[in-house]
Amino acid sequence: MEVRVFDDVDELGRFAAEHVIAAISAQPDAVIGLATGSSPLSLYAAWAELARERGLDQSAVRGFALDEYAGIDPEHPESYHSVITKTVVEPVGLEPSRVAVPSAEATEEAAAAYEEAITAAGGVDVQILGIGRNGHLGFNEPGSPLDSRTRRVSLTAETIADNARFFDSAADVPTEAITQGLGTIMDARKLVIVAVGEAKAAAVAAAIEGPVTPDVPASLAQHHENVVYAIDRAAASQL
Ligand code: GLP
């Protein structure tokens, strides 16, 4: 595991984006796992900038988002369909038809189809990940089985409270979601985990230095052979 600490979030973003760019440069139809949240925004901005500067052909790149709220209208501005389009697909210039987000219907069939689509694409080359304050990955909350696959899940009160800022009120935040499982995430060939800010310090310390346990889903990354943490000094403050 490589842990890199940055004072400057733009520099953090450039470092993390280089892993994505390297995968695409090596293989034009690379499969990139995409995360929502504020953590990867500097990565996405740097990816867009570096790809433009280097004239990278990204027309064959595939993308798979980690998760989506259950029952949300995909056209809702805070659906992960919308967020992935706004924060990644458009700025980076990916081909929209080559980027998938789990279906908000969140049925068993939709979950199985998502797993099959990832497998059919050859698996994820680089998975971008944020980390929840409670150590969650995607919407795999504490207690999620370490071998879980894409499925419908319930959100914890903490996650609903954290995500309420994106909605009119906490009551408007969906209480369920569809998420790639921890087993799905671990199948990616490389994990790039981004964390920014003091609020993530305890989760980062538990994930990197604590025991591997379902109580801290991100701790499972200790078992991955190719994982890079790009974190700022505040997020690193409890290491
Ligand atoms: C949501 C997403 C996670 C993300 C987390 C952290 O719960 N499902 O994938 O990592 O938010 O968000 P932020 O980066 O804004 O702190």
TrEMBL record:
InterPro entries: Glc/Gal-6P_isomerase (IPR006148), Glucosamine6P_isomerase (IPR004547), Glucosamine6P_isomerase_CS (IPR018321), NagB/RpiA_transferase-like (IPR037171)
Record-linked Pfam families: Glucosamine_iso
GO biological process: carbohydrate metabolic process; glucosamine catabolic process; N-acetylglucosamine catabolic process; N-acetylneuraminate catabolic process
Protein keywords: Carbohydrate metabolism, Hydrolase
Keyword Thylakoid: no
Glucosamine/galactosamine-6-phosphate isomerase domain segment(s): 10-227
Keyword field contains Hydrolase: yes
Top-level lineage group: Bacteria
MF terms (GO), sorted A to Z: glucosamine-6-phosphate deaminase activity; identical protein binding
GO cellular component, one term: cytoplasm
Protein name per the record: Glucosamine-6-phosphate deaminase
Protein species of origin: Leucobacter komagatae
